[in-house]
Structure to design on (273 residues):
């Protein structure tokens, strides 16, 4: 009989500290299911971020390292260079990666480091109470942008599309963006992460999957409304699909996304936070 569903061995059977409706847990489930499927539990190492996923070592039943805020790409670089036969995963939030760790990640991608980054974009600093992140949408309210992000005011600038940014670099081989807002997108995101893991184990670098993920608590929305907000506001600003694939093998479960250049309308994002 074919087993259709089971609790991954790579995931610990413990309660998490995540809020109801948070996307981090879904992403953990995708990662651990794939590690089991690929038979890599004994050969996987994850570098955990500083952010709400900082306790991920309590949840992952395989090796992990906790570098300082934003420095996980440097740690992942060292680990992968020494243990080149291991699956090395660099897990980062948008504050961790696109703010304090921007330089780390750009140079790791540009060097073509052969680890896989899972970039959790929830458009906010979750752990520290909802401050504006580099990915916060135009018009989205945050603890440090109480009237909404205004690119012209107080040097707030525009949301950074990290996937498209890193795709420009010759060292990156595979960049995709998924979301965990519904079953179909969770399945597609799983496909992207699987392809990135397979690419890494085949010796390719640099691979990254950005995942749009709800943060109901800091968006001041209930879990269902948070998913709707993600669909109506984040997906138009951060288009889903494969952004770059120079691996030479196909298998994407969606068409490549054309990067949008316009910002999502500020009026649409007033509902959050
Ligand atoms: C060097 C340093 N600076 C600042 C902080 C405070 N800090 C902890 S988590 C965090 C932001 C986390 O946001 P994000 O990476 O988006 O993760 P999320 O909680 O949203 O998943 C910050 C600024 C810190 N721990 N260390
Ligand atoms: S604050 Fe946001 S990112 Fe952090 S656990 Fe809660 S919902 Fe998740
Ligand atoms: Mg965040």
């Amino acid at each position: 009989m074919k087993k259709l569903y089971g609790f991954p061995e790579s995931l610990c059977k413990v309660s998490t500290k995540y809020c109801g409706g948070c996307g981090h847990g879904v992403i953990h489930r995708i990662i651990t299911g794939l590690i089991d499927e690929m038979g890599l539990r004994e050969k996987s190492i994850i570098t955990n971020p500083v952010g709400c996923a900082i306790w991920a070592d309590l949840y992952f039943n395989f090796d992990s390292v906790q570098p300082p805020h934003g420095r996980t790409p440097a740690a992942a670089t060292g680990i992968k260079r020494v243990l080149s036969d291991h699956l090395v995963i660099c897990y980062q939030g948008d504050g961790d990666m696109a703010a304090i760790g921007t330089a780390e990640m750009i140079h790791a991608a540009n060097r073509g480091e052969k680890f896989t980054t899972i970039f959790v974009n929830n458009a906010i600093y979750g752990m520290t109470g909802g401050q504006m992140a580099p990915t916060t949408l135009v018009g989205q309210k945050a603890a440090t942008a109480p009237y909404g992000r205004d690119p012209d005011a107080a040097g707030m600038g525009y949301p950074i599309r990290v996937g498209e940014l890193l795709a420009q670099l010759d060292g990156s081989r595979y960049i995709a963006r998924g979301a965990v807002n519904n079953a179909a997108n969770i399945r597609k995101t799983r496909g992207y992460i699987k392809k990135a893991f397979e690419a890494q184990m085949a010796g390719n670098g640099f691979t990254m999957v950005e995942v749009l993920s709800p943060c109901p608590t800091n968006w001041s929305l209930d879990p269902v409304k948070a998913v709707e907000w993600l669909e109506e506001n984040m997906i138009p600003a951060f288009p889903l699909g494969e952004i770059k694939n120079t691996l030479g093998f196909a298998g994407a479960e969606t068409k490549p996304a054309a990067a949008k250049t316009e910002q999502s309308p500020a009026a649409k994002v007033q509902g959050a936070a």
